[in-house]
Amino acid sequence: xxxxxxxxxxxxxxxxxxxxxxxxxxxxxxxxxxxxxxxxxxxxxxxxxxxxxxxxxxxxxxxxxxxxxxxxxxxxxxxxxxxxxxxxxxxxxxxxxxxxxxxxxxxxxxxxxxxxxxxxxxxxxxxxxxxxxxxxxxxxxxxxxxxxxxxxxxxxxxxxxxxxxxxxxxxxxxxxxxxxxxxxxxxxxxxxxxxxxxxxxxxxxxxxxxxxxxxxxxxxxxxxxxxxxxxxxxxxxxxxxxxxxxxxxxxxxxxxxxxx
Length: 260
Fold this sequence. Notes:
Layout: H1 3-11, H2 19-39, H3 47-74, H4 78-83, H5 85-105, H6 110-116, H7 132-170, H8 181-192, H9 205-251
């Protein structure tokens, strides 16, 4: 095995000696980076803590920069990796740091730099590379994406129709809360998703009856996509279990035959 294959195996956690250590190290850096974003917001943070967080960010960016460069160097098709989902995630994991340096160097508004720091949360997506459950979720999505897309389009239509209906019922009674159909869409979205903030609600009898009917529709809007994905996941798990059982049967030694 040449060095490219060994490095690629280590980065993907498949190397027999280094894979597990590299995987745990990258996980620790990702979680450290995410936690530091919350620690940085603490009021009256000591100076030494701010310095430690800055040094930690530099170390994390340096490690992820080396990782990105190694993945490009060891990928069979570097361009395909750079355009792939995880290639974009790996690039976005380090981009905020370097873009922040560019913004500061040109003397641009520091508010833009603070907004770029939110992209550091993309590093949490790097955890998905080492999680088999994410592969199963991706397979389940590919199996039901057409059905979910159709149902999503239907849900948007239902949302708009409900907003039109409730506006007709509530506009005169609450001209400020239901000033337009677009304002009514906020109420429809909150109601159809069963969130129910309570900031806007119908007061007319017809509007309340219509809301009750909407709640029954909302149960289906939430349950049907969940059921589709759950069914696909169950099918994938059953297929994996059958494949594992078949491998176990092939690995079993043949029964010994007695000689007369």
